[in-house]
Amino acid sequence: MPQTKFLLSEAQIPTTWYNVVADLPKPLDPMLHPGTREPITPADLEPLFPAELIAQEFSTDREIDIPGAVIDVYQQWRPSPLVRARRLEKALDTPARIYFKNEGVSPAGSHKPNTAIPQAYYNKQAGVERLTTETGAGQWGSSLSLACQYFGLICEVYMVKVSYQQKPYRRGLMETFGASVTASPSERTEAGRAALAADPNSPGSLGLAISEAVEAAVKSGGTAKYALGSVLNHVLMHQSIIGKEALLQMELAEDYPDIVIGAAGGGSNFGGLALPFLGEQLRGGRSVRAIAVEPSSCPTLTEGTFEYDFGDTAGMTPLTKMHTLGHTFVPPSIHAGGLRYHGMSPIISQLKELDYLEARAVPQTACFEAGVTFARNEGIVPAPESTHAVRAAIDEALACKESGESKSILFSLSGHGHFDMQAYIDYFAGKLQD
Fold first, then answer.
1. pLDDT tens digits, residue range 161-193?
2. How many other CB atoms sit within 10 Å of the CB of residue 365?
3. Residue 210: CB partners within 8 Å, gap ≥ 6?
4. Could you tell me whether strands 319-324 and 358-362 are parallel, antiparallel, or unpaired per DSSP bridges?
5. Model's pTM, two decimal places?
């Protein structure tokens, strides 16, 4: 029988993360201090992050060791399956070979624990008592909530208000894992109060929630640190475990992707899968087409400018050189809350500028159409964020049908949509707008 799942043993979990910074053809522009506009030093980041994460953020080493305590937790769900989507191929009548890396098998239902676990671990090792963070759809918030529970930390989550209202079960999951969840903008911080004064009905944004979480950490008197779920170098590095596993699994499949696809909000999911493959290319190995897919309502890579900007709305974070729509941009209230971010990872932005990856923006109804097609053939309901990757994978497979080419397509199924069924209900009811 033809093989569908390509599985690694727990003994094959990668023991290092991959840092693409070591292979970039052009170095990243430095982060700038929000006050002085001078290049950030490691000491400048100490109010936000523990020393080990700061070292990883500035590291140019190609491989960074994964602590044994982190691997012990990873073993609960890693290695994640690589699946050949044979039923989808048949339904599309395409000669393409479609694979997906299923990150929805984690306890939180997405790829986000890949970085939440090490971030909580390093903070615990540094004597931190409490972590603050933001979340959009709730995938990151639920992941950090669980990670904090594993390592005995208090977790405070500022959840974008529109998602707080749309996704009560995701909020319930965070609270089950022990976190406190606050709708952002809130009255708890200066940034939140200013936003509410300007617009009492503000739906919130990831940038604003970041402002609140950063403010809460900085004003904690040293008892709390801040944890970020995407964008920064160390986060993408932690997520590289996805692509490192996929490289081994594609060997088991006796195949290699011509096209690698991922949804892109801040860049961690797309980067986690694509960067190890692009690293092979940068070091003289096989080339791939890497496609980052974003919502047309928040088209950071396709329509944003490549310039220095704040990572948050209030201007409290360092400035990074990235593709941005402007730190005051408030995206429409689409269901893919995890992709409603004004900026893009500096690494992903740099690779886009150097033409190592393509960017594609798609409307949400086309994404949900693809998500339903995938669910009805593969039996997995994708998260709204993941439907962006599904859409592009289907489109590329249909292009192969037109051309008669048998290309290999690999995409990241970044999470399942079991906590997002209201979005599908709205889609079937015709309530979603582009």
1. 988 988 899 999 999 999 999 999 999 999 999
2. 13
3. 134, 228, 311, 312, 313, 317
4. unpaired
5. 0.95
